[in-house]
Structures are given as structure tokens and as C-alpha cells.
Amino acid sequence: MALAPETVPDAGPGDESFPRRAAEVRRVTCNRGGPVLVDGPIEVCVGDGPPERIDRFRVAICACGQSGRYPLCDGTHRRL
């Protein structure tokens, strides 16, 4: 699906934070058994909570769901 350069698709009905302006393309790296790595800066939304801006160069997002710092990875997946 081709998108106009200034738009990205809606997240879904009722999500007031979308549509949003397109930003530069971000790299997302999925590692089996490890975190999802996202080139930052990013904005993370968890459930109905407010967005949290993370200005790091690379952000590790928890994929196991067991992190004490969820949604960020704290390495807990290594002990599972």
C-alpha cells in the first residue's frame, strides 16, 4: 500500500493520537528470544496510559512480557 509522504495509517477507531504525520523511517530489529530493538528516539504507548518519549539512540522493547521495567527490556528474558 503506497502512502502519501505526509501521512501514515490510523491505528484504529477511537485512537485520538492518530493519524499522525509521517516521520523518517525507523529500523525495528526482532531477535528471537530477546528484545525488539527500535532505533530512537521513539514514543511508547502502553495501554491507555500517556505516551512516553524515549530519546535513546536504540531502545530495547520487552518481547517476553516479564520485564520489571516494561515496556522496556531489563534482560529478564535471559533467565526464562
UniProtKB/TrEMBL annotation:
Transmembrane feature ranges: none
SMART domains assigned to the protein according to its UniProt record, in alphabetical order: ZnF_CDGSH
Pfam families: zf-CDGSH
Keyword tags: 2Fe-2S, Iron, Iron-sulfur, Metal-binding
InterPro entries the record matches: FeS-contain_CDGSH-typ, MitoNEET_CISD
Name under which the protein is recorded: Iron-binding zinc finger CDGSH type domain-containing protein
Limits of the Iron-binding zinc finger CDGSH type domain: 39-79
Spans annotated as Disordered: 1-20
Keyword Iron-sulfur: yes
